[in-house]
Amino acid sequence: MSKANLIDGKAVAASVRSEITARAARLLAETGKRPGLAVVLVGEDPASQVYVRNKDRAAEACGFHSVKHTLAADTSEASLLALVTQLNEDDAIHGILVQLPLPGHIDETKVLRLIRPEKDVDGFHPVNVGLLATGARDTALVPCTPAGSLALLKRTLQTPLAGLNAVVIGRSNIVGKPMAALLLAESCTVTIAHSRTKDLPEVVRGADIVVAAVGRPEMVRGSWIKPGATVIDVGINRVPDPAKGEGATKLVGDVAFAEAAEVAGAITPVPGGVGPMTIAMLMANTLTAARRQLGVAPEPELF
Ligand SMILES: NC(=O)c1ccc[n+]([C@@H]2O[C@H](COP(=O)([O-])OP(=O)(O)OC[C@H]3O[C@@H](n4cnc5c(N)ncnc54)[C@H](OP(=O)(O)O)[C@@H]3O)[C@@H](O)[C@H]2O)c1
Q: pTM for the complete prediction?
């Protein structure tokens, strides 16, 4: 039985970030401007606080102008909309990210749709969704987690993905759907599976590429994986870890890693796979947004 190659998302993300840092320095030399990222956090959700801190730190490490707005949990929708409007009009800010989830009294859709599409570095605005869906990826801002997953696939496979069978498990707007659109744009034959899919193991067995974005710990078993397939595990699930003591927890993906690694050709670990790529691609999107807004010619694609 073959042991899968481990896809080291941490290492790939570090190399992406170092290339972005170099490109940001060139942009500064050419234009006197730094890419500007504004991250907005409403409330005190601990996981969101960690994400926002990491994004802010990554932006600073890349040499960006980075601004963090932390608002109280009871901030009104009108105040948040006013802040987004102000950031939309701020020439020093090229990317705006409003950390989700927002408190229940705020209409998420309304807030996300107010962000100017060219500053929408999360890629959630319908204009960016539409550009990706209609094959105009070059002019869109693509959601960071699927973009990072595709980058890992391309680096791993080193050959065109055209003609490969890809199964994406999950159809969320944040991961599953944009992932499927990206794979289709690479000319894969794409199947999108979800909670109503019949005989999911059999569907997955036909896949050369499996992307799991479900949110169910270790749901995808090794016996579902076609020998030699490439497995990208987007899931991040916190589960009890009794081996480490009472109350201890650990992170696992949506794929039963040990089993799948016996069969797959290559697989991402959790943590250390897709996760680090998400922030790297946020930096890439911010740099892209800045170049477009400053009217500077695009640099070659990172992947
Ligand atoms: N690495 C990262 O940076 C990153 C970023 C974002 C998300 N994530 C992780 O990725 C996972 C998915 O996130 P998400 O936002 O896409 O989740 P989501 O919005 O909850 O969507 C989950 C999808 O999985 C499908 N599903 C649920 N149970 C299923 C089952 N038994 N069989 C087949 N499909 C099933 C759902 O189908 P229906 O549509 O039919 O309900 C849905 O489409 C989570 O673990 C999340 O933490 C990681």
A: 0.97
